[in-house]
Amino acid sequence: MAEFIELEGQDGVRMTWNVVPGTKLEANNCVVPVSAIYSPIKPFPSMPVLPYAPLRCRICRSVLNPFSIVDFGTKMWVCPFCFQRNHFPPYYTSISDENLPAELFPQYTTIEYQSPGETSSMPPVFMFVVDTSIIEEEMAFLKSSLSQAIGLLPDNSLVGLITFGTLVHVHELGFSTIPKTYVFKGSKEVAKDQLLEQMGFFLSKPKPSAGVIAGARDGLSSESIARFLLPASDCEFAINSVLEELQKDPWHIPADQRASRCTGTALSVAASLLGACVPGSGARIMAFVGGPSTEGPGSIVSKNLSEPIRSHKDLDKDSAPHYHRAVKFYEVLAKQLVHQGHVLDLFACALDQVGVAELKVAIERTGGLVVLAESFGHSVFKDSLKRVFQSGDKDLGLSSNGIFEINCSKDIKVQGILGPCASLEKKGPLCSDTIIGQGSTSAWKMCGLDQATSLCLIFEIAKKDIPDATVQSSSNQIYFQFLTYYQNSAGEMRLRVTTLSRRWVAGPGSMQDLIAGFDQEAAAVVMARLVSFKMEFEAEFDPIRWLDKALIHICSRFGDYQKDSPSSFSLSPRFSIFPQFMFHLRRSQFVQSVPEPALLDVAAIAADRILLLDSYFTIVIFHGSTIAQWRKAGYQNQPEHQAFAQLLQAPHDDADAIIKERFPVPRLVICDQHGSQARFLLAKLNPSATYNSDGNRPGGDIIFTDDVNFEVFLDHLQRLAVQ
């Protein structure tokens, strides 16, 4: 595993099979697809940034890389993807074996280019879209957090404000005399032309008779744009004044009805306004929502309380009356945002549902952020919002205007990408007929991306025949190249190029090579993303059955056993943890309706032990009963018990380190054995001791469940694998 982590530290890539099956049949027999988890802009301190444009192959457009074959005598290089011979331009005339450019250094398989003059003149843009159909207490929490966030914005960033409830209010921040807003009806969608007309964009400059209205260069005056989007340094007072005066939506709510909330109309107005004023910029719509949309396009439930809000069961049975209409609306909005290059972020804080199931298509395709919390006063929301605008070592590295492209050797095709991107529909020989996620293309738009963004790339082996031994020995390398164009937080346009080489094997002697190249951690991530995708898009898909069949097949293929003898079964260390990953995945809340992810065993609980659990959205520090008694007695404050004080502090230090690195900021739960909050840990344990169990229980705890434990699961797996 260490060598895979080292490769990730160099290129930001983890592949399921680091030795690739050489034929389509071999790949299908491997069950887990040939895939890569790639972080496009993962920071690497030692990665060089070259101050010139990349050198490209004139046929396939791949970039010069360490795997290119260079003829120093003729000053030519051979592309490893299409084998085209290319001439070096005149400014490469001095290259030699001792004088290589950085892009040919063997250690620089990942490198960045920054061409001179390629810096965007457009500052970052933030459009705050704020829900006012919330109670006064929540409104106070939200206004306080927004005021702090505005103080953290870069001085040159442009800021706009839209509030919504029954109606949509677009605030003219540039009109400093008195607060001034443009009001739109929330019950129906507002067309872009109607929006611009009603907001007076053409009072001083006539509307163009033809063409697309797009920013100051195409149809709008800078003065009209500055009425609604002002630099943060100029409008901080104006926004804070608006926020101070902002009140709960004033419209009366009958006792038998929900609050009127036109989320879809507000987001559509924000998207159209940004599309007209700042197209192609790194703009973000940041929506702060406190409940379900009940008015206008995108609504998920009626205002009448007699109609219950849709449940997961309703979505499964296709009996949610508003769902398909809302999803269709947000799909259109997603296309508009992707075309404009803008991002939609969602901060949803409510005890009720807000409609993320419908909204998520627009968020995912634009690479937006999602933060869910119970209240705008909760630390998860407040700390996460601060992290978005935080600068320094712990910032998110928010970037924009990304385009991601793939080049591969001719026997590899791309089925698609699972991750925050949208297809640019660039069809070609690399595209597989099988589509997974955003497929049938070799280029994708990434409106928003950050240092932690990762893409799951699913490949297909196209070769059908096993080549003869002489050909295999001379050309058994395949190549992948990932190109990411993006605008970083400083406004600089960058191109990151990652080029990988992997060996392929085929035939009878390939088994041990495949086993040696299997990355079980990457495989678990890929299987989790695949099963999530299939659950959402395949009708009547049974995730547990699919995972079980895949695991049985992979154990049958790569296990060592005698037929019909479960006791003889064994797995290579390269595969030994994979069944545990699958066991926990099939029991997780993402696959089953009951939230029981299992990352530890109940037997790990002991009276004199502290457990630290990281379940991504929640961090749990669990004190055994004896530890809890010592802590309550204050032993950690006594000089002779400094060791105990250090023991208590250690998990807090680890938890703090995790919280500082993660977005959204996770919830921290500190609990004691047998205490009420111990449920945060117990819900996530392998139930090796339940109320039905006999014998000694080392930790003194049991889990009340009828689910099978890992030992029983593994026993059944072995029986099925050896049949």
Oligomeric composition of the shown chains: single chain
Largest sheet: 8 strands, mixed
State the helical fraction: 25-40%
What is the overall pLDDT average? Answer: 87
Count of distinct strands: 30
Count the DSSP helices.
20
Strand content: 15-25%
Shape field: globular
Cα gyration radius (Å): 28 Å
Which structural class should the secondary elements be placed in? alpha/beta
Distance between the termini: 30 Å
Instruction: Catalogue the unreliable spans.
Output: 469-474, 593-599
How would you explain this protein's 3D organization?
The protein is of the alpha/beta class and 723 residues long. It is 30% helix and 22% strand. The strands form seven sheets. Strands 2, 4, 8, 17, 19, 20, 22 and 23 form an eight-stranded mixed beta sheet that branches. Strands 9, 10, 11, 12, 13, 14, 15 and 16 form an eight-stranded mixed beta sheet that branches. A hairpin with a 3-residue loop joins β27 (610-614) and β28. The longest helix is centred in the last third of the chain and has 20 residues, at 642-661. Residues 469-474 and 593-599 have low confidence and may be disordered.
